[in-house]
């Protein structure tokens, strides 16, 4: 799909296309309609008489208007009261318009929203771009009414060059989000650890370094907690290190760690079918971290970041780890495996420790589809835990600016006793009460005092329906926006060298 910015031009001929306008409570029919064709305006007014439309946000009137140029599909997108519209809402309104005509058979959508600045036009483009995501590579015969037909989206704006420039960075953001969505959507028979790491190696952005550690190197590093998770699978367990050094070599990096379970069957503590069918999503944390670093590299941000992605498949093969096993993690701490389905914390324990020891980061953020317990927050909020109030504030602020919702939960110290084992230093599971909290407390044991935050994205990485117009049902790409904004807001070096 091609997105272009263009100045408003009088229409000469109308090849069948769609026009989208914003509609407000006090001006249901917008002045932008007048600009193009008076006859069309009357026709929209006539068509409006046949529908019951109040221009509230989320409402939309899908009309056909007739003028001397022929029929035109007209989409009036409800925008509520006439108040300044922020860029996040503009993204959604534009996406709403696009979704209405995506599979209509029309090829062109022209968006004529009242934009005053190029930045707004760029966000309109981003909204459409994000809404256009499809993962239909495995359909061999897609029904016509399901095929996206829009190939051209034209956004009307005065300052065309300004809009193009503003869109550059946002197009990179969309690429990064699509990278996450693509990897998370990929089924586990095609995306297993070595395929995932190959795709990361193939990213080929100048300056982006990718290192892949295999089983032998992980054993040498004594990452037994990670290796234990993958030992029941026929696929090799790996750990990928991604580095972007946009700042001077001596500045400490930000550490990002992402859970990369390419499929979580539960292992010998096997899930039942209902809980298992969506478990290709369990590498979403790793995909998010990879995309954030990819994005920072595309944007050549002046910041040093390292991403640690432990990749494994949790399977119940003959070599599988057993409940009751005890593993010695890289940190030296021993862990009793009570439930092999609580595997994410095992992999992350070695990954966090490795990140801390090898790279001495200023802070670490891990992202993981870690626990079913986040069901408490629904599909609305990701859960956040943090040992550091400032980091936590910065993450909440970045999430708010990017339209992603996260909610801080407490690291309730009393639950620490749930980690105590009678046979080892820690155990990996002790029942469902406070499940997200005890998992976070477990991870904290491996941060070695480094300022740290943990995002549990189990319930937001995959949308069963499409609650937001810019996020089609399926893989969401949640977290890419928040984390990249968090880093750019707070840790990017400015040209004068300050942060
Ligand atoms: N991968 C799951 C968590 C998950 C749940 C991710 C739903 C995405 C959607 C995790 O490894 C897991 O199995 N957690 C269990 C552990 C327990 C049964 C030992 C949990 O928290 O319920
Ligand atoms: Zn599990
Ligand atoms: Zn899991």
Provide an overview of this structure.
With 499 residues, the protein is an alpha/beta fold. The protein contains 14 helices and 20 strands. Strands 7, 8, 9, 10, 11, 14, 15, 16 and 18 form a nine-stranded mixed β-sheet that branches. It has a six-stranded mixed β-sheet with strand order 1-6-5-2-4-3, with helices on both faces. Helix 3 packs across helix 4. The model has no long low-confidence stretch (mean pLDDT 94). One zinc ion binds next to loops.
Q: Report how far the terminal alpha carbons are from each other.
A: 38 Å
Helical coverage, percent range: 25-40%
Q: How many individual β-strands? A: 20
Strand content: 15-25%
Q: What is the CA-atom radius of gyration, in angstroms?
A: 25 Å
By DSSP (H or I, 4+ residues per run), the number of helices equals 14
What overall geometry do the principal axes of the alpha carbons give?
Answer: elongated
* Cofactors, ions, other ligands: ligand BES, zinc ion
Main pleated-sheet profile: 9 strands, mixed
Q: Specify the structural class.
A: alpha/beta
Low-confidence stretches: none
Mean pLDDT: 94
Multimerization state = single chain
Kindly summarize this structure in a few lines:
By secondary structure, this protein is an alpha/beta fold. It is built from 14 helices and 20 strands.
Q: Secondary structure elements and their pairing?
A:
Blueprint: E1 2-6, E2 18-23, H1 31-36, H2 38-48, E3 60-67, E4 70-78, H3 87-101, E5 108-112, H4 118-131, E6 152-156, H5 160-185, H6 193-201, E7 208-213, H7 215-220, H8 224-230, E8 238-245, E9 254-258, E10 260-264, H9 273-276, H10 284-298, E11 304-314, E12 326-328, E13 334-336, H11 344-359, E14 363-368, E15 382-386, H12 389-402, E16 406-408, E17 426-427, H13 435-444, E18 452-456, E19 462-463, E20 474-475, H14 480-491
Parallel strand pairs: 1-6, 2-4, 2-5, 5-6, 9-11, 9-14, 10-11, 13-17, 14-18, 15-16
Antiparallel strand pairs: 3-4, 7-8, 8-11, 12-13, 15-18, 19-20
Helix pairs in contact: 3-4, 4-5, 5-10, 8-11, 10-14, 11-13, 12-14
The protein binds ligand BES and zinc ion (2 copies).
One zinc ion binds next to loops.
